[in-house]
Design goal:
Elements lengths: L6 H11 L4 E4 L6 H15 L5 E5 L2 H16 L5 E4 L9 H7 L2 E5 H9 L14 E4 L10 H14 L7 E6 L10 H14 L3 E3 L5 H7 L4 E7 L6 H16 L2 H4 L8 H16 L3 H22 L2 H15 L6 H21 L7 H14 L6 E4 L3 H13 L1 H5 L4 E4 L11 H13 L4 E4 L14 E5 L5 H8 L8 E7 L3 H25 L2 H18 L12 E4 L5 E4 L3 E4 L3 E4 L8 E6 L9 E9 L5 E8 L3 E6 L4 E5 L2 E3 L12 E2 L2 H15 L1
Parallel strand pairs: 1-6, 1-7, 2-4, 2-5, 3-4, 5-6, 8-13, 9-11, 9-12, 10-11, 12-13, 16-24
Antiparallel strand pairs: 14-15, 14-22, 16-17, 18-19, 19-20, 20-21, 22-23
Helix pairs in contact: 1-2, 2-3, 5-6, 7-20, 7-21, 9-12, 9-14, 11-12, 12-13, 13-14, 19-20
Length: 671
Amino acid sequence: MDCNLRPYQEEVVQAALRGENSIIWLPTGGGKTRAAVYITKKHLETTANAKVAVLVNKVHLVDQHFAKEFRPYLGSTYKIAAISGDSNEKDLFGCLVKASDLVICTAQILENALINMEEEKHVELTDFTLLVIDECHHTQKESVYNKIMGRYVEKKVRKEGNLPQILGLTASPGTGGNKQLDKAVEHVLQICANLDSVIVSTKEFTPVLQKVVPRPKKQYDIVERRTLDPFGDHLKAMMLMIHEYMPPTVSRRLREMGTQEYEADVVELEKEGVKKENRLIAQCALHLRQYNDALLINDTVRMVDAFRGLDEFYNSRKTKLLDGTDIFLQGLFDENRVELKQLASNDRYENPKLAQLQCTLQEEFNDENSRAILFSKTRRGTHCLFDWVNSNRELQRVNIRAGILTGAGTGANHMTQNEQKETIKHFRTGILNLLISTSVAEEGLDIPECNLVVRYGLLTNEIAQQQASGRARAMNSVYSVVAEEGGREMRRELTNEYLESLTAKAIDQVQQMSPSEFRLFRFQILKKLLKKNERKQRYSPSQVQFQCRDCFLLVCSGEDLRKIENTHHVNINPEFERHYIAGGQVVLEKSFEDWEPGGVISCKNCGKEWGMEIKFKKVVTLPCLKIKSFSMKTPGGKSTPRQWKDVEFQVKEFDFLEDMSSHFHDLDLDE
């Protein structure tokens, strides 16, 4: 099959065809992936021993790129392998790379293969001659893309081996949240430096591009503020009682209830309480966050959804009341539960945004061929909206068939990767005509027939806004923002429009730099980047003590921990077992070569969930820990890392023979 390009695509591929590292910037629907297929084809035809890797950041994009783009144009001539986290081939990634001309995979799979030294799994960056990086604006901070490119840059600086050519693809580099042009320029330069690339866009054929990619009609569906909200008011009154239970200096610092700013404040407050081992403050902050979540849900979906979330939270804690703070917090909810439930079921005070959303959907779905995506902030929000759509008679009358699309994972509201694929397939074929989604569908999802995109109760950045509006691809499509009159969503949306135009100006300025000026800027940023990568571990493992985050029980030392395959952090000290209870079996959809999940583990003292047991190589069961469930005591004070990569000591690699000798010795003694 011939891979023909439009004039503007011809223009943006020229730098890559010359063998230069480049980022192609085209709007969603402009055919970036097709341009990448064309470059890949030319590269495979003209490069000796060519080997190409196409990296994506979402599992569903592996299949999409393979089936819709790369296989149709290259499949008859070249050997292509598509590998995602749930395919067993990933365990033989090194062998697959050797046997293929082109691999399409999630970036994490390549990252794991770069780290893993077993021959059939290991690859080097120098094994490839071209790396295509999809949605490459994610190449920053701690992202997997940036880890891979960090290695690339280090090798380049040290002049190690023949490195692959880089091709980045993006619809929305963004401004990094900056509102000044010079800072936005710096952000674009940072992405160029991280990808060691220039950024290219169409200059000659903009009118052709605008014709091919029609912008959806944007409409603001404005809703008047709720006049009365007795359910929300009652929640706020309860929150004030918790404020009064805490020292006055603490509650004075908290911003307006029911906002994301308040959420940020109580998250920080909980960390502060943990660091000071002040359980009263830590627990009050934890509960205030739940109440604030309920206010945010009350502001977005139904009161009954907000009540249900709180009810489930307090039900799960009833049996583990450790002290007076726990008794006060549980008692406060129990005393108010009946009244909250009654208020939540009173239709007179229901959320007016839902009535507006109903009108917007009804209007579009009068046409039976309509296809829409409704974006919501959280997984929980998508489930609440799904329940609302299915119980709404008017929406059922216009034959809305809704499905949920959220990120893959193992939590209660997560989807498995197969469920994601099924949902997308059903939406594409019309079995479903409304997708209720978190940001997972903002990027890359190719559904040309989508004629309505609704952003509902969302406060996000200009990248998410551009990506979401790019999902509305049918002719005469509508991009609707359902927002309260003069509310925060409205202000944010207008700011995003300004930032979108600022992005274009910043890219233009970067493109106008002289080659020497551009290189100098990029070099300065690279130097900073390399310095940052040299962050030293501050403590030895023996200096770090781990405490349960909820009850501050001291449970282990950094010396007891090991990491397996750079992802699982396990405790190898047999003594650790006396601190936890193993509960229900964890069920994962996919199977793994070296390990299988066991039961959920929780603190014996307070019931805080700590992670799960894993059975390693079918021989030994080890507790695998979630860092967010613990606080760390170090010589420099206490810290509450969100991820394992943030800990300030080196966790040793797991060595089966050395680390398990004591386990087997103990077993011999028992016999």
